[in-house]
Amino acid sequence: MVKLYVEGGGESKELHVRCREGYRKLIEKAGFQGRMPRIVACGGRNATYDSFKTAITHQEETPLLLVDSEDPVDPTEDPDSALAWQHLQSRDQWECPPMASYDQVQLMVTCMETWIMADRFAMRNGFGAALQESALLPERDLEQRTRHAVQDALERATRNCGQDRAYQKGRRSFQALAALSPATLAQYLPYFRRFIATLRRYL
After folding, report:
1. Where are the beta strands (DSSP E) in 69-158?
2. What is the Cα–Cα distance from 134 to 112, expressed in whole angstroms?
3. Element at 106 (helix H, strand E)
4. pLDDT (tens digit, 9 = 90+) per residue, 45-54?
5. pTM attached to this predicted model
């Protein structure tokens, strides 16, 4: 059984459900309906890594780890690249477990909001006519932007969309995630292409 351990959901059971649902819908649209991984919402970054480390010792499952990179990473779409683990070791002092392969760690570079910002069509549909697109960052080289730049731009662009539509972490972010187009994300984000290529290996 393939299990995808994802960062997100905080401490709330309701947000864990919304987190799993958001990732499920996105991955299904990427062509994996009927052969989905089991998605595990783990809350914070360290909790997600700890869950993965425990899971890697269980022979009955194949765990994959998906976390924010938090900082830009040299671009790659090669599942066998060591760059993701090297980044996490340098930034977070996370060691690659001896039983894990390089493709078992996947990064949202630099954060989930990068994925959301890459799909302007989904953003227009989700946030409505009050979306201030001029405040968004260009789609090209989006993974090289800091997470603070991405998150601040997303908040500025949606601040006039109304209380129920303005971007916020949690419920709103997972709704936005579920609406994204995998093809659009793959067009702009090398690490998303790496993620999908890895899923094809395991599913």
Report:
1. 105-108
2. 20
3. strand 105-108
4. 999 999 999 9
5. 0.97
